[in-house]
Structures are given as structure tokens and as C-alpha cells.
């Protein structure tokens, strides 16, 4: 009987002892299977990324190889025969230099004409001719120079008659008008020169195209394309340069016309002020 209970106890212990071991083995197997599945998933993701990488690189390459505006202009400049296109570039640089110089000069010559004349009139009516002359000398612009010349005659003892003052105003206005238009002839020269150089490049390109046809003995588009490209590029650059300079030139002319109008207004006001002065010979 004791042996029977002992055998039953041993079998029960063995059964309960094996169950955790089997469960542990099952858990290990499940973990191994899960780990293997995760590894397969990671490997599949890496493969998909590797397959998509070339497509991403292909998409990025055109962005990196995209040319900027300055690079495109440089390329077209060289294709249009750099030696000949340099003449067009020089015309642009020199023309812009004269334009900028005129714009700066005319901007500095502009003053508030009405305010200036009111101040001048108050000084002359108060008998402060010397102060009025100093005021004109310290003010920039052609209006101030005309006023200064008129007041100097008014302040003199032998040239203070109205006819002499009017004549001095007209002479000084012509001098100041010539100063305003100084270097404008150079701007018009470069405006005319730029498209002329472009058309000259067109002729040179056509001659080059015919030379290529003569050497190749063929009139295929490939042979003619080089010379035609030179002809068209030089023409385009020449016309663009002329248009840029023409815009600046028209702006300069508008400023000159405004200053001439101011000088005419100042001349009439000065004559009226001088006639009212006690120092003027009627």
C-alpha cells in the first residue's frame, strides 16, 4: 500500500514538474518565432527602402543639376562667341555707367523750387542781397545758379538794369541746360551701338553657317545650327542691351525736362523779384 502511494506521488510530482518545463519550452519557441517574424519584417523594410533609394536619388539629381539664371546667361554668352559678345557687354557697362552718373547728377540738382524762391524773395525784399547770394551759393542745382547770377548783377552798380539781369538769366539758363544734358550723347551712342553689334553678329553667324555648309558639303540642320545659334544669340543680347539703356535714357530725359521747367519758373520769379527791388534800375 505504501509502495502504491509512493508510486502515485512520484508520478504526480513528475507530471507537475514536466508541465512547467513544457510550458517554458513553448514560450521560448513562441518568442523565437516572434523574433524571427520581427527580423523578417525589418529585412523586408530595409529591402523596400533600398529599392526606393534610387528613385529618390533620381528625383534629387535634376534639382541639383538645375542651372541658375547667371549660369544660363554665361553659357549663352559663350555660345554667342565670347570674343564678339564682349563688345556688346562693354557697350552695356559703359552705357549704364553714363546713365548712373546722369541719374545721380540730376537727382542732386533737384530742389524744392517754390520754397527756395520764397526764401530768396523774402531776403531780397528785406534788402539782404548778400545773404541771398550766399544762400544761392550754398544751394545745389541749376535754379540756385541762375538765381545767384541774377542777384550778383542786381547787387552791382553798373549791371543792375532789368535788361542786363534778364540777359544774364537767359545765358546762365543755357549753360545750366547744357550741364544737364552732358554725356547724354554717349548714352544715345551706346543705345544705337548695341543692336548694331547684334546685327553684325547675325551677319557673322550666317557667314559661319555657310562656311560650315561649304566644308561639310551638306546642308543638314546639324551643320547649320552652330552658325544660326551665334546669329540669334548676338541679336538677342544686342536688343536687350539697347532696351535697358533706352529705359534709363527716357528717365533721364524726363528729369531734364522737369529741371528745365523749374528753371523757367525761377527765371520769371527772379525777374519779378528784381523789378520790385530798390536796387534795380527801371
N-to-C order of helices and strands: HHHHHHHHH
Envelope shape: rod-shaped
Strand content: under 5%
Computed structural class: mainly alpha
Query: How many domains, as an integer?
Result: 2
**How many β-strands, per DSSP?**
0
List keywords for this structure.
2 domains, rod-shaped, single chain, 282 residues
Please give a structural write-up.
- With 282 residues, the protein is mainly α.
- The chain has two domains: 1-66; 74-276, no CATH class.
- The chain is built from nine helices and no strands.
- The chain has helices at residues 2-65, 69-79, 82-109, 113-125, 129-137, 142-155, 162-180, 184-216, 221-276.
- Helix 3 (82-109) runs parallel beside helix 9 (221-276), helix 4 runs antiparallel to helix 5 and helix 7 (162-180) packs antiparallel against helix 9.
- The N and C termini lie far apart (164 Å).
Present the secondary structure layout.
Layout (H helix, E strand, L loop, with lengths): L1 H64 L3 H11 L2 H28 L3 H13 L3 H9 L4 H14 L6 H19 L3 H33 L4 H56 L6
Helix pairs in contact: 3-8, 3-9, 4-5, 4-9, 5-6, 6-7, 6-9, 7-9, 8-9
Give a short summary of the structure.
The chain is mainly alpha-helical and 282 residues long. It is built from 9 helices and no strands. Helix 3 (82-109) packs parallel to helix 9 and helix 4 packs antiparallel against helix 5 (129-137).
